[in-house]
Specification:
Strand content: under 5%
Low-confidence stretches: none
Helix content: over 70%
Largest sheet: none
Protein name: DUF2818 domain-containing protein
Keywords: Membrane, Transmembrane, Transmembrane helix
Mean pLDDT: 85
Shape: elongated
Transmembrane segments: 6-28, 40-61, 76-96
Number of strands: 0
Number of helices: 4
Order of helices and strands: HHHH
Number of domains: 1
Amino acid sequence: MEQTVLVWALIGIALVLANLPWISDLFFFVFEPPGGRKGAWLRLAEWFVYYLIVGGLALGAENRAIGDIHDQDWEFYAVTLSLFAVFAAPAFVWRYQFRPLLQRHRGWK
């Protein structure tokens, strides 16, 4: 039971962290970016740092759950990076497709 809760908590944390760079214009929700706006490259860099944080949490969870960390090849990291990108899709679509559409048609900001 504890492993199941740990896995679902990790998936929930990954979902939240994958979406954070596209939700806020602040860098890591704290720092004002240079120039006042956070560009796409800065968002991707922030997203990748969040990926590394989730990976560290996953390593800690694996060590706690089974007492050992298994060696992984490049395929594992390619799949987890792709999954993290899929998790980020809702906020990415909101930032670059849906929000500008609302701003154009409704004057929404």
